[in-house]
Amino acid sequence: MDAKCHLKYQRYGRRKVAQLMDQVRGKSLYEAQYILASIPMRATDVLGKAIKSAGANLSVKLGKKLDLRQVWVTECFADQGPMKSLRRVQPGPQGRAMPFKRKMCHISVVVSDTKQKSKESN
């Protein structure tokens, strides 16, 4: 059985979050938490919360407490969020204002109690 977690409008760049997701994809939740704890990046906190939330969602779906070593991260990806809402201005040469857009991303994590990616979602 699968469970999902979606975090939207996170103030991190999509590519930086995707680098972290490559490290934990296919690992158990137990391994993923220790891998994220050892990586010195800011986005590890948010990704760790998403993985824990997806594990808790699976626990509620199954109706029992799960062993973290028996739950795997089957899918995780980050999509580009809107860059229109948080516009900022940086000073430019000769008194000009240069636009600077804050990056955002949407994080999606899917965990399962089976190691293979499920074919049921097709």
Write the layout of secondary structure elements.
Blueprint: E1 2-10, H1 14-24, H2 29-38, H3 43-62, E2 72-80, E3 87-91, E4 97-101, E5 105-112
Antiparallel strand pairs: 1-5, 2-5, 3-4
Short characterization:
By secondary structure, this protein is of the alpha+beta class. Helices cover 34% and strands 30% of the residues.
Describe the fold and architecture:
By secondary structure, this protein is α+β, with helices and mostly antiparallel strands. The protein has one domain (2-112): Ribosomal Protein L22, Chain A. It is built from 3 helices and 5 strands; from the N terminus they run βαααββββ. The protein has helices at 14-24, 29-38, 43-62; strands at residues 2-10, 72-80, 87-91, 97-101, 105-112. Strands 1-5-2 form a 3-stranded antiparallel sheet. Strands 3-4 form a two-stranded antiparallel ribbon. A hairpin with a 5-residue loop joins β3 (87-91) and β4 (97-101). The radius of gyration is 17 Å and the shape is elongated. The model has no long low-confidence stretch (mean pLDDT 91).
Characteristic terms for this protein:
alpha+beta, elongated, 34% helix, Ribosomal Protein L22, Chain A, two-stranded antiparallel sheet, 30% strand, 3 helices, 122 residues, three-stranded antiparallel β-sheet, single chain
- Any idea what the CATH architecture is? Alpha-Beta Complex
Q: Tell me the CATH topology.
A: Ribosomal Protein L22, Chain A
End-to-end separation: 14 Å
What is the global morphology? elongated
Instruction: Report the radius of gyration as a whole number of Å.
Output: 17 Å
Uncertain runs: none
Largest sheet: 3 strands, antiparallel
Average residue-wise pLDDT: 91
